[in-house]
């Protein structure tokens, strides 16, 4: 069951390793590979340039260490080679993110769909599974959804569940009867809403590196930061939200985010720098002359908030305003009151507990022949291609294991359940 990245990869791997045997891919909706097409602003961030499994696992707030062995069997280099063998070249950008050289997610979606067709995978859309029933002699009976009444049943010998992450705990209820523990789901990779933001006049302003800290918590992250109409976004915020997903949920997505616009500086280094600059540039206006590489609009806004008028010169700067400016450069407070997630790129913290899964084959430890892959598992990475890499890895290992089990019909299921 899998109309997304993990489901397609698993179905292809199974069909290619066991030619001639029926492999079905069932998708609840009428849309295939929606997240693949939407990701990376329509470019598809396929993976991340990591040289080793040890380097790769450091980017997963949940599940990374457990997957180290899996990444050693199918990692970044394997992903690059897999797509290259199917005519798709990937490129690495300066920050390590890897995209198709076409800069189009359609390239990746078409490669997956073409590979599935060539391998003989039978794809069924608008086919929802409401119940999985293990059969006494092995295999499964799938109860398909009907219109106003139960639909038909389908018998398969092996089954891969790759239904993606689900935002509500109840959406895992149809899997719970199979005996697997579920780590309660909460959102990951989201932006901060700041309704009363002092930066609300600066949408579109970005800095290449800032440190975002959640006041009173041991949560912080550095990276590019973007000011938006509703608050703040960018990798620094998204990655902080991933590492702090459970704690932020407990806080009901409220708190104070402190923005250090100059993460190379502390009070002890910035204060003497400002003092020296003031001594050497006393006649210069403050607000109109941005310093320290900050965007002009941001610098002017911080100066205004420090009580610095548009015509004030450095030589006339009062000590109180000087201290306030330093404080804002290192710790601009933003009152976070909620989050924003994007439906097509939604990532879940939580899912089927990894302790219940044999991570060499992605097979259930409770139900032989039942495999899991992708975000339905309690695995999630930070932004940068890591969630797709987990999908490719777990899907490939599951598909290969299903094929090695013998010449039997298999199904890959996505979008199933309530």
TrEMBL record:
Protein name: NAD(P)/FAD-dependent oxidoreductase
PANTHER family per UniProt: OS12G0638800 PROTEIN
Keyword Disulfide bond: no
Cofactor(s) the protein needs: FAD
Entry superkingdom: Bacteria
Record-annotated RsdA/BaiN/AoA(So)-like insert domain positions: 186-347
Domain RsdA/BaiN/AoA(So)-like Rossmann fold-like: 1-400
Pfam family membership, one: HI0933_like_1st
UniProt keyword annotation of Flavoprotein present: yes
Keyword tags: FAD, Flavoprotein
Family annotation (SUPFAM superfamilies): FAD/NAD(P)-binding domain, HI0933 insert domain-like
């Amino acid at each position: 069951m899998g109309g997304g990245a993990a489901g397609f990869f698993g179905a292809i791997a199974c069909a290619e390793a066991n030619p001639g045997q029926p492999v079905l891919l069932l998708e609840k909706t009428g849309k295939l590979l929606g997240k693949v097409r939407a990701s990376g602003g329509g470019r598809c961030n396929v993976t991340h340039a990591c040289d080793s499994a040890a380097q790769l696992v450091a980017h997963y707030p949940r599940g990374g260490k457990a997957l180290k062995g899996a990444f050693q069997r199918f990692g970044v280099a394997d992903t690059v080679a897999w797509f290259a063998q199917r005519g798709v070249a990937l490129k690495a950008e300066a920050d390590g993110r890897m995209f198709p050289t076409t800069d189009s997610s359609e390239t990746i979606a078409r490669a997956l769909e073409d590979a599935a067709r060539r391998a003989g995978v039978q794809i069924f859309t608008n086919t929802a599974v409401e119940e999985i029933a293990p059969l006494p002699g092995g295999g499964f009976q799938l109860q398909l959804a009907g219109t106003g009444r139960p639909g038909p049943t389908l018998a398969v010998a092996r089954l891969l569940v790759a239904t993606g992450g689900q935002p509500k705990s109840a959406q895992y209820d149809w899997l719970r009867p199979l005996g697997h523990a579920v780590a309660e789901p909460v959102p990951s990779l989201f932006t901060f809403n700041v309704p009363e933001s002092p930066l609300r006049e600066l949408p579109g302003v970005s800095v290449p590196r800032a440190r975002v800290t959640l006041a009173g918590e041991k949560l912080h992250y550095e990276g590019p930061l973007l000011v938006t109409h509703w608050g703040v976004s960018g990798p620094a915020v998204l990655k902080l939200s991933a590492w702090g997903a459970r704690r932020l949920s407990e806080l009901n997505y409220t708190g104070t985010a402190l923005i250090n616009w100059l993460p190379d500086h502390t009070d002890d280094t910035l204060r003497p720098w400002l003092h020296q600059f003031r001594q050497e540039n006393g006649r210069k206006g403050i607000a109109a002359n941005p310093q320290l590489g900050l965007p002009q609009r941001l610098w002017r806004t911080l100066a205004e908030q420090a009580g610095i008028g548009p015509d004030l010169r450095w030589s006339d700067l009062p000590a109180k305003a000087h201290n306030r400016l330093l404080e804002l450069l290192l710790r601009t407070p933003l009152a976070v009151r909620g989050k924003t997630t994007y439906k097509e790129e939604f990532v879940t913290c939580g899912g089927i507990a990894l302790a219940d899964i044999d991570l060499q084959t992605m097979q259930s430890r409770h139900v032989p022949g039942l495999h899991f892959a992708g975000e339905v598992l309690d695995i999630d990475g930070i932004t940068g291609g890591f969630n797709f890499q987990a999908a490719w890895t777990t899907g490939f290992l599951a598909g290969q294991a299903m094929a090695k089990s013998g010449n039997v019909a298999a199904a890959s299921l996505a979008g199933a359940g309530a």
